[in-house]
Amino acid sequence: MANSFQRARTTVILMGIASLLTGVVILLNPAGVALFLTALFGGVLAIAGAVTLVGYARARDVSTQSDLFVGLVELVFGAILWFWPGMFVNWLVVIVGVFILFSGLGDFAEARSLAALGAPAAGMGTVLAVLTVIFGVLVVASPFALVDLMFSIAGFGLVFNGVTELVAAFRM
């Protein structure tokens, strides 16, 4: 029983340290971590594509054209992520920003329609729609600022988790 308890405590301590260290690394370079993870995913995807293509070539008599297509898509998309992770992260965030922008414009049109009907909350809807449009413009204008913010929040969360794990472990 005591041995199981000690192993559990050791596991909690190691998880706390890992979480704390990972959080600190992310906080020190949030954009760099985003680019590294994107490139890493791209490398794994490119390798998967190459393996799929080799499998297709080795068993061409039983392989389907979809194997060839999937392998090529994995390889090309993986290579793009590997060689140009910044471009991918940038475009992904810009797409999110454009979605937010158009959502805000739609919200603004809805709020104006409600105001024309005399709805009491139309003013608040207009304010929220304008804020959404502004946020969308900011995201599109500075995508890496959002990446930094998102990864910084994740880093703070990991640091907090690591500290709470360590506190819990030493109170066991």
From TrEMBL:
InterPro entries: Acid_resist_chaperone_HdeD, DUF308_memb. GO terms for cellular component: plasma membrane. Pfam families: DUF308. The chain crosses the membrane at residues 12-28, 34-56, 68-85, 91-109, 121-144, 150-170. Keywords: Membrane, Transmembrane, Transmembrane helix. The keyword Transmembrane applies. This is DUF308 domain-containing protein. It comes from Thermophilibacter provencensis.
